[in-house]
Amino acid sequence: MILVTGGAGFIGANFVLDWLAQSDEAVINLDKLTYAGNRENLASLANDQRHVFVHGDIGDSELTRRLLAQYQPRAIINFAAESHVDRSIHGPEDFIQTNIVGTFHLLEAIRGYWSGLSEESGQRFRFLHVSTDEVYGSLSKEEPAFSETHRYEPNSPYSASKAASDHLVRAYHHTYGLPVLTTNCSNNYGPYHFPEKLIPLMIVNALAGKPLPVYGDGQQIRDWLYVKDHCSAIRRVLDAGSPGETYNVGGWNEKPNLDIVHTVCALLDELSPRADGRPYQQQITYVTDRPGHDRRYAIDARKIERELGWKPAETFATGIRKTVQWYLENQDWVGNVQSGAYREWVEKNYGERQP
Ligand code: NAD
Ligand code: DAU
Q1: Cα of 51 from ligand 2 centre, angstroms
Q2: How many angstroms is it from 81 CA to the middle of ligand 1?
C-alpha cells in the first residue's frame, strides 16, 4: 500500500480518487483537516476498504512512526502543506510549522522506518515530495521557462517554506540515501479546488453576483495544468523516476490572469447565463495588488516528457470547460465550503483591497 499526506485537500483528494479508480493498491490518507482539508472530497470512498483515513499532523512523528510500522507502505506521497500565498502574507507561521517543521518531522519518521526495511524493500521504497514552481521565483516576459536547474529564488513566505522543504528532502537523499523524488508543478485547476484560489473564486463569485477581484493590472502570467494531469505525472514519477531527481511538471499553458477570468466569464455566459442577460465580465473589479506579486511563472516540462514519457492529456480549453461544469453541478459542495471561517477569510483578504 501507499501512504498519502494531505489527501483531503484539492490535489491530494484528486490523486486518491484517481489512484483507487485505477488500482487496487490501498491508500492510507493522513490529513490534519485544516480549513483546506475536506472529507466531503472523499465521500465516494466512504465504504471503500482500500481507503483508510487518519486524522493527524505530519508534524506528529510519533503518529507517523506508528502508521508506518502498522501499514508498511512501499511509498509515501507528501501533499500536506499550507498552500495559499495570500494567507502566507497575512500569517506566515502556519507555513513554517507545516511546510518546514512538519516536513522535517515526517522525514525523520520515514528515515527511521526506511532504515529498518530489508535491503530489497528499502531499495524499492520511495518518498515523493510534491512541490511547486514558485520556489524558482519570478520570470520576466523574455526569460526561458523554469528548468530543474533554475536557481531557487522564492519570494513569498509560502514559496520560501516550500523551498526549505525541498532542500530538506534533497539533504535526506544526499546524506542518508533516502530514495526521494521531488516534483515541482505549475498552477493546478479542476474539481475540488478551494474557492480562495483564482479560478474557483471567480466561478463562485460570478455565480453569486459578486465582484471578480483582479489583483493589480491582471497581466501576471501563470502556467495552468488540469489537476488530473498533475496526478498522472506524479504516478509516472513514482513508477519510473530516479531517486534523488527532481521533475518539473507543467502544461505549456501560460496565460495572463485577465485572460483566465475572461475565459471563465465566457464559459459561464454560455453554460449559466446571468438572469439579466448581461455578460459576467461586467463584474470584473481591479483591486490592490498582492505584495511581492510574482509576475510570471512558466515550466519547462521537457525532462519529464523526455525521460519518463509523460505529457498532459487535457488542453486548457477542455480542462477549463470541465472545471466550470463541475462547479455548476456541485453547488452543494460549494455551499458547504463557504463556512463562517471562509467568509472571515474573504473579509480579511478583500475587505482591505481598494477597487
Ligand atoms: P490544499 O491547501 O488544497 O490542501 C492541503 C491539504 O493538506 C489539506 O487537506 C490540509 O488539511 C492538509 N494539511 C495541511 N497541513 C497539514 C499537516 N500539518 N498535516 C497533515 N495534513 C495537513 O493544497 P493543494 O492545492 O492540494 O496542494 C497540495 C500540494 O501541492 C502542496 O504541497 C502544494 O504546495 C503543492 N502544489 C500545489 C499547486 C496548486 O496549484 N494548488 C501547484 C503545485 C504544487
Ligand atoms: O504555481 C503553483 C502555485 O499556484 C501553488 O504552489 C500554490 O499552492 C497555488 O495556490 C498557486 O499559487 P498562485 O498564487 O499562483 O495561485 P492563486 O490562485 O492564489 O493566484 C493565481 C493568480 O491570480 C495570481 O497571480 C494572483 C491572482 N489573483 C488571485 C486571487 C485569489 C487575483 O488576481 N485575484 C484573486 O482574488
Answers
A1: 31
A2: 4
DSSP 8-state assignment for residue 188: E
Is the pLDDT assigned to residue 355 strictly greater than 80? no
Cα 342 to chain centroid distance, Å, stands at 19
In the set 31, 82, 133, 166, the catalytic residue is: 133
Residue 34, amino acid: T
For 217-231, letters b (16+ CB in 10 Å) and e give: ebebbbbbbbbbbbb
Confidence class for position 353, pLDDT limits 50, 70, 90: confident
Q: Is 133 close to ligand 2, i.e. is its CB under 6 Å away? A: yes
* Ligand 1 atom 42: residue of nearest CA: 187
- Render pLDDT for 48-69 as a digit per residue (tens, 0 to 9): 999 999 999 999 999 999 999 9
C-alpha cell at 264: 471563465
**Comparison of pLDDT for 352 and 26, the residue scoring more:** 26
Q: How far is CA 338 from CA 37, 201, 204, in A?
A: 13, 11, 10
CB 30 within 8 A of CB 80: yes
On the 0-12 / 13-18 / 19+ scale of CB atoms within 10 A, 149 is: exposed
pTM, full prediction: 0.98
Coil, strand, or helix at residue 22? helix
CA 53 vs. chain centroid, Å, equals: 19
**What is the fold, at CATH topology level, of the domain defined by 2-189+225-252+292-314?**
Rossmann fold (3.40.50)
Pocket test for ligand 2, best of 83, 215, 217, 253 (most atoms within 8 A of CB): 215
Alpha-carbon 226 to chain mean position: 11
Cell of residue 78, nine digits:
507528501
Mutate which of 79, 82, 84, 85 for ligand 2? The one with the most ligand atoms within 8 Å of its CB, which is: 85
208 SS3 class: coil
Q: Domain residue spans in the chain?
A: 2-189+225-252+292-314
